[in-house]
Amino acid sequence: MELLALEGKIKEKTYGKQKIYFADQAQFKDVNDADLKAMDCQISELIAEAQSLTQSCRQLDAELKELNSSLTTEEMMSEIQELKAECSEYRARLEKIKSATNHITPEEKEKVYKERTVYVKEWKKRKRLASDMINAILEGYPKSKKEFLDEVGVETDEDCKVVVPSN
Predict the structure, then answer these.
(1) β-strands 10-15, 18-23 pairing
(2) Secondary-structure breakdown of the chain: helix, strand, coil percentages, each rounded to the nearest 5
(3) What is d(CA 150, CA 141) in angstroms, rounded to the nearest whole number?
């Protein structure tokens, strides 16, 4: 900085122990107001252009990121092949199911549903009877219901996490 000050390109001022350097205004020509306004317009245009380029850059970056995250042509082709193979497996499975000869007749299906209804009804009846007997015993029993069931060795549906199906 001192060399530039000695050469006369910049000015130097000393304030106590501090030195301040600044551009020598004498080396620049005087600029009139019209030139200043023209420079201001040019600056505004350059700022607008810089903002436009920045926005364009952002859009291109976003597009690049999207393209980098998407599958390549080779990956897409292999994905298509895998999906076609999976589809053909499902078609073969469907044909196997359709061509099966062990279909159940509606009569057999109805018979199974009727049997299920009978068995569920019997299950509920027996559960109610067992519950009534246990409650009758518990009226004179000094301990809790849980202690009684443990002592006798009875496992309830709830202990086995079994739910009686609704018809």
Answers:
(1) antiparallel
(2) 70, 5, 25
(3) 13
DSSP state letter for 43: H
On whether the CB atoms of residues 50 and 43 are closer than 8 A, the answer is no
CA distance 128 to 122: 10
Q: Classify residue 104 by its DSSP letter.
A: P
End-to-end CA distance of the chain: 99
H/E element holding 19? Answer: strand 18-23
Give the pLDDT confidence of 67-87 residue by residue, as tens digits.
Answer: 888 888 899 999 999 999 999
Write the pLDDT tens digit of every residue in 103-162.
788 898 899 999 999 999 999 999 999 999 999 999 988 989 889 999 989 888 888 888
Q: What CA–CA distance (Å, rounded) separates 52 from 56?
A: 6
- The strand pairing partners of 14, in sequence order, are 19
